[in-house]
Amino acid sequence: MKKHHAITFILMGLILIFVWGCWIPEDFDAQFYVNKDGSYRFTYKGKLANVMALSLEKEGKLGKQEESELKKDVEKLKELKGFKSVKYVGKGRYQISVDYRGKAGEKYSFITDDLQIFSVFFQEENLLSIQGFSPTEADFQQLKALGVSIEGSLKVLVDSDLEIKTHNADHQYNKKHMRVYQWNIKGVTDKPEIVIAL
To answer: What phi and psi, each to the nearest 5 degrees, are found at residue 45?
Structure first.
């Protein structure tokens, strides 16, 4: 690979780390369940990709030593809130399962407070807000160049007794005693958001 191409990929990786932190979600199913009392549950099944590893892979520099170091991140990820299972599947990608239960008034961010891919916070005492990430066109093109495919589904299931103040879901429907709001995340989309009155 030519030197200027290698530098381009390194800079791309650094830009993405600055924007996204180290992790990018791939091929995922994320769900929030919001109960009448304001407590909630968050689940995530899918992959996380390490940006630096993807940059190294693109350059052909992801060898056995780098793979060995990446495997060590399994234990670090398991220490994060709600992480139930983490498996390294190679080339900087991890298959994960998350199940986190939050109390009314308790904020939560997946993956961390610094890297908020999905988050719950309270705008006021009785207003619960759930937000998701949205890559810019520039981010999307850089990620595409690294072979990343940000595709997945976010669902927010809300107790039917609760009032929805605002949302920008792609679809909504009823399911038993819940109202379901769904976003299909693929490429550049509006930032998912829903505000619920408790």
So the answer is: -130, 125
The CA distances from residue 160 to 125, 157, 174, in Å, are 20, 9, 8
- Phi, psi (deg, nearest 5) at residue 106: -95, 125
Letter string b/e over residues 101-112, b meaning 16 or more CB atoms within 10 A of that residue's CB:
ebebeeebbbbe
Q: List, for residues 137-170, the tens digit of each pLDDT value.
A: 777 777 777 777 788 999 999 999 999 999 999 9
- What are the backbone dihedrals phi and psi of residue 95, each rounded to the nearest 5 degrees, phi first? -95, 125
| Predicted local distance difference test score (pLDDT) of residue 192 | 94
d(CA 73, CA 63): 16
Contacts of 4 (CB under 8 A, 6+ apart): none
CA contacts within 13 A on the Cβ side of 48: 27
Least Cα distance to 197 among 128, 140, 138 occurs for 128
Structure pTM? Answer: 0.86
Q: What are phi and psi of 53, to 5 degrees?
A: -65, -40
59, containing H or E segment: helix 51-59
Residue 123 in tokens? 């705008």
